[in-house]
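Hey team,

Filing this mostly as a record. A colleague (T.K.) asked me to run one chain through the structure pipeline before their review meeting, and I want the input and output archived in the tracker in case anyone asks later how it was produced. No errors, nothing strange. Just documentation.

Input sequence:
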Amino acid sequence: MGKDVIIACDFSSAQDTFDFLDKFKDEKPFVKIGMELYYSEGPSIVREIKKRGHKIFLDLKLHDIPNTVKKSMKVLSKLNVDMTNVHAAGTVEMMKAALEGLTREDGTRPILIAVTQLTSTSEERMQNELLINASINDTIVKYAKNAKEAGLDGVVCSPLEAGMVKDNCGKEFMTVTPGVRFADGDAGDQVRVTTPETAKKIGSDYIVVGRPITAADDPVAAYRRCVAEFVG
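Output structure:
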């Protein structure tokens, strides 16, 4: 399993997205399409970016009753994305249903991962607002184990938890980690962050990087720096 940098294309329109992707003449970065862009442009944006030769992580974080998630995943699997996700909080049954819906008749499917806790969630918020009394680390490990039990490929977690997830779920269990910033950058609104180099050492398989690349003066140079630090 090769390591890769996924660029979070958190733009509000197709035009902004294509203007950004057009800057890349020599590379075809793996890109993440999140809620804002998908809800703004619909499935056509996925088809167009795929046509341009990019791998796509469709980041919609499904969380609903199992049957609804299963039927929704069946629709999303037709878009031929490379990776998609659900919230692990939706239970093992829901994650199994997601996997079933995502798997095509020929047995192929995109990578399916689960979100453990959002990188904007601190332990204090989790305990005070969500009434989860366990520590954030114990919660993340339990959610990761649930995802593995359901047959998923891995989880989204902060880079600070990637090693812990691997220790509990095995080396092959994938960790996709947002919350990555350059050492000399701004943490933004995320509270559990680290650098690409540290994420590599900890054991992340994929890092998701948004503003440090998309808001950089030279996004291509920032992307290349990220790849150099993370992939080597």
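Quick notes for T.K.: The mean pLDDT is 93. The longest strand covers residues 56-62.
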